[in-house]
Amino acid sequence: MERGKIILAGGEISAKNNPIYEKFLASCGNETAQVAIVSAASCNPQKSFGDFSNVLFLYGLKENQIAHISLNNSLLKTEISLLNKCNLIWFVGGDQNKLYSALMNNQKVLYAIKLLHNKGVTIAGTSAGAAILTKTMIGGGSSYCALLGVKNTHNIYTDESEFGGLLLSDGIGFIHKIIADQHFNAKGRIGRLAVVITMNPNYLGVGIDEDTAILVDLANSTFEVIGRNGVTILGAKREVSNSDLMKIENIKLHYLSEYDMFDYENRRVLVHQSKRLTTGNEFFTKHQTIASGVANANNSLIDLLSYGLIDNKLSNEVRSFCFEAENVGFELVFTKDSFSEGYFSKINGLERYSIKNVLMSIYPVNVKIDRR
């Protein structure tokens, strides 16, 4: 029997994001769906269970089609019994390190989940619930601290860990060859993911934006992008310095949006046929080279790469910066070459770009700010 699909969502999934929920329910249909909601990552498991139940009600499910898996030891036998009746599993967000510990302390539940997946059950997770599903898991840390080489060695996630040292640990391993990062554009995690894949060169870095997900087909080693924003893929060629500060050169970057697919076995982009090639017919003619703050136009990653670079006749390079104070910072340089391609379409009234083969390099720089 073929293993079930995997859905990795980037967090902050709107209840109105029909494509993600419809893909989740597609394998069994609304009428026969029996959903297990695993809430152990949350700081308020009961509320998270209730919130996601309310979303499922919007898609036609009833209370008797939804089970709460809290990973509470006192409920172990009951929750395993509930799990075995389910044909869909959803891990809510919160703290992936807390969730991992709970699963390690409830091996019988984890075994039941893996058995169900091997029987074809679709497993989905959002935010922390997505991070846990890969073999190697990012547990915390900021881009800036990751580039500085600061690591969290305690395997504990605290409020400060969001902005502290890089924490890498084991996930539960439903997906190999991919390391996923969530809230990707909103929380500026491109530097963090770049560092992680230089440490794990056989893996592909997949940064998933909020209100967006990937649907992974393990049998074919492909995934499809679904949802409102996009997915950044980092991998392939890289050159890393051995200095104290991280210097990374020539990482290959792709950015995919809704309906695009990626073959992660062969590292091949499959842009959806509805999108037209912009390369050779670029729309913008503006020298935009730097985006580094909230007062800059087009300062998000996709805006910088699309309007600033790939769909811009006058630009072959754009830059952004990462720093938290004076002295040490990092320059991120994105370059297009003869292999770079851009694609554009409007889907449901929203502009969608897809980008292939941009090179990204990251250099340490000195930062000095003089107020005038």
Characteristic key phrases:
372 residues; alpha+beta; 2 domains; nine-stranded mixed beta sheet; 21 strands
SSE topology sketch:
Blueprint (H helix, E strand, L loop, with lengths): L5 E4 L8 H9 L8 E4 L6 H14 L7 E4 L6 H8 L4 E4 L4 H9 L2 H12 L3 E5 L1 H4 L4 E5 L2 H6 L18 E4 L7 E4 L8 H10 L4 E5 L3 E6 L4 E6 L2 E6 L3 E2 L7 E10 L3 E3 L4 E3 L5 E2 L23 H10 L6 E7 L3 E9 L5 E7 L2 E18 L5
Parallel strand pairs: 1-5, 2-3, 2-4, 4-5, 8-9
Antiparallel strand pairs: 1-10, 6-7, 9-12, 10-11, 11-15, 12-14, 13-14, 14-21, 15-16, 17-20, 18-19, 19-21, 20-21
Helix pairs in contact: 3-5
Protein described:
The chain has 372 residues and is of the alpha+beta class. It folds into two domains: 6-242 and 252-270, Class I glutamine amidotransferase (GATase) domain (Rossmann fold), CATH 3.40.50.880; 276-367, no CATH class. It has nine helices and 21 strands. It has helices spanning 18-26, 45-58, 76-83, 96-104, 107-118, 128-131, 143-148, 190-199, 301-310, and strands at 6-9, 35-38, 66-69, 88-91, 122-126, 136-140, 167-170, 178-181, 204-208, 212-217, 222-227, 230-235, 239-240, 248-257, 261-263, 268-270, 276-277, 317-323, 327-335, 341-347, 350-367. The strands form three sheets. Strands 8, 9, 12, 13, 14, 17, 18, 19, 20 and 21 form a ten-stranded mixed beta sheet that branches. Strands 3-2-4-5-1-10-11-15-16 form a nine-stranded mixed beta sheet, with helices on both faces. The chain is globular. It starts with 5 loop residues before the first strand and ends in a 5-residue tail after the last strand.
